[in-house]
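Collaborator request, handled under Task 6.
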Amino acid sequence: MRGGMDRRFKRLTMLCLLFCVQGAWAGGSDLPEPRLKTRFIPDSARVGSMVELALTYRLPEGAKLPPEPLIKGLEGLDVVGIQKNNGEIRIRLLVDRLGEFKTGPLSLAFLTPEGSTEFLHTDPVGLTVLSNLGERPDEARIKPIYGIIPTGSGFMESLGWGLAALGACAAGLGIFLWLRRRRKKRGLPRVQVPPHHLAEKEIHALASQEIFEKGHVKEFYFRFSEILRRYLESLRGFPAAEYTTQEIALSIQAPEDRKILPLLQDADLVKFADLIPTPARKRDEIEQALAYIRETGSAFEKDPADHSVKGRGIGIGGRRAIQNEGAAP
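Structure tokens returned to the collaborator:
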């Protein structure tokens, strides 16, 4: 009996030794081998739907994936997104074609412990694309596609009409205000200052400015002469402001108008001959001018509607004749 037990003990020992030798001979073969497996989830889909391509990988000892997974074989497919999990990468794809929906030979890059890039490879994987017409597409009844049906509430159309109405109201209001302003302008009578009052006012204003006293003698007499000429033009009706003093002398008929000629002649001497009158003479000429205006201004008060007591004037032909004679202004 004792011999039997020894034999069984020896057999058990031999079996243990055999297992140990087999493990040693395998040389670490219990380490998982690198691999890459792929599959579609689901394995069939209709056109326009989303599917996921699952890549299950096992990397060599010490290897790792790069921060951004590098996957080859997806060329031509519409990749919507990539999600990376532990040992698995899921790629969302859009089924955008009929017939064959298949990847190319797939490769997944990884980094070795030494830093070099290597790839895991696997065969292409395909997806069964189902028809959108159902299981029996030959028997399906295709319906026409309707055009675009307006669903608006008409707000934009109403807004356009509203803006047009506001524009019309604004235009009408503008025309009304313009007509009202125009009517007011027409209704307001113009205040016309009689020529003799205007001439007196201008002479007093000129004297108060003390232009003569400041040494601007010519400027004073230019303006003084212009005031008298415009007054004479309003009084007698001929263009005295444009006439020379000689032409004015030929045009006037009223005896009282002769009183203004010495004033105009003295003004010409200052303007064109550099004559410098004394301040006393200047004051005397101002008084003479005012006296002449007061004397003749009664014509405007008697007949305000007819401001001009017509003078005969010398006409264009007479003026040319005077200019040909070399008359100085």
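The cover message to the collaborator said: "Residues 24-28, 307-312, 320-329 have pLDDT under 50 and may be disordered. The first strand starts at residue 35 and ends at 41. Please let us know whether this matches your experimental observations."
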